[in-house]
Amino acid sequence: MIYCLGPMGSYSEKAAKLFAEHLKNSEEIIYCNSINEIFEKLEKLENSKCEDNRLVYGVVPSENSIEGSVTLTQDLLMETNVNILAEIDINIEHALVSTSTNKNTIKRVLSHPQALAQCRNYINSNHWVTETMESTALSAKTIAEKQDKELSAICSEANAEIYDLNILDKNIQDYKNNQTRFLLISKKQNKEYIKDINFGIDDLKKVKSTVILELKENRAGSLYDVLGEFKKLNIDLSRIESRPSKTKLGTYVFYMDFEYYENMDELFDKLDKWVSKLVYLGTYFVL
Ligand SMILES: O=C(O)C(=O)C[C@]1(C(=O)O)C=C[C@@H](O)C=C1
């Protein structure tokens, strides 16, 4: 069973379906109203399973090629007891949909904040007012219910058919190469997930790990010392990103993604000297 941001037609649903192809027993998708709700549902589980004994997963957007990190997801990855099991990049092509057949009647455009930001220039050039919604698909569903010709939504083309709307424009994101990375997550633990997943991948280049670190001290070279441990072990970093620690202005935690390394205990031992906190989000497949 997979929790993802709904309703039907969201990009998260598309990612969930692609992940589901690799899961043996968990294809059923349950739509949630927000990203928070997905993390909450996983956190509340007692033993990672639903009543009929199937494992429970979540799918969340983590990063976009135009807008950068989905900061809510990044924060909840640190605050919630979850693991990353896999990641996948999805091409995002937004359409403008409406109950109207004429673009000239549109005055307001509804969508998820990430989608509105990805189409900022397009929206500004049409002088429309924006309204944020919890998902792109919810914005399509909402305008279909309201039947107001001044309203439009930004979402995938598939929503036009699902909610009986007209496509007024296609491919409207400001940069044509628009991709969002999604993560398959579970409650933290456990060996059983490995049995349920069949990624069919032997290539270790397609395996990655993520940690979140807080430095022990703020002094010249303290981040350099951490990076030095990765260099000494010849581990290739693919992302380093800072987020506010939320304890004091100007203090940060660092999210680091890196290539497969067989001895994580050794790495963690070395890092221990320099970090006051280390959250290990998992070693996982890149699909
Ligand atoms: O609203 C959706 O359809 C989502 O799945 C969320 C989301 C996101 O949070 O980034 C996913 C992909 C797009 O980048 C826009 C919105």
From TrEMBL:
CDD domains xref list: ACT_CM-PDT, PBP2_PDT_like
Any single GO CC term annotated in Swiss-Prot or TrEMBL for this entry: cytoplasm
Key words, A-Z: Amino-acid biosynthesis, Aromatic amino acid biosynthesis, Lyase, Phenylalanine biosynthesis
Catalysis performed (reactions): prephenate + H(+) = 3-phenylpyruvate + CO2 + H2O
EC number assigned by the record: 4.2.1.51
Keyword Amino-acid biosynthesis recorded: yes
GO molecular function, one term: prephenate dehydratase activity
Pfam family, one: PDT
One of the GO biological process terms: L-phenylalanine biosynthetic process
UniProt keyword annotation of Amino-acid biosynthesis present: yes
InterPro entries (UniProt xref): ACT-like_dom_sf, ACT_dom, Chor_mutase/pphenate_deHydtase, Preph_deHydtase, Preph_deHydtase_CS
Domain called ACT: residue spans: 211-287
Gene3D superfamilies, alphabetized: 3.30.70.260, Periplasmic binding protein-like II
Domain Prephenate dehydratase positions: 1-187
UniProt pathway: Amino-acid biosynthesis; L-phenylalanine biosynthesis; phenylpyruvate from prephenate: step 1/1
Superkingdom per UniProt: Archaea
Protein name, as recorded: prephenate dehydratase
Organism: Methanococcus voltae
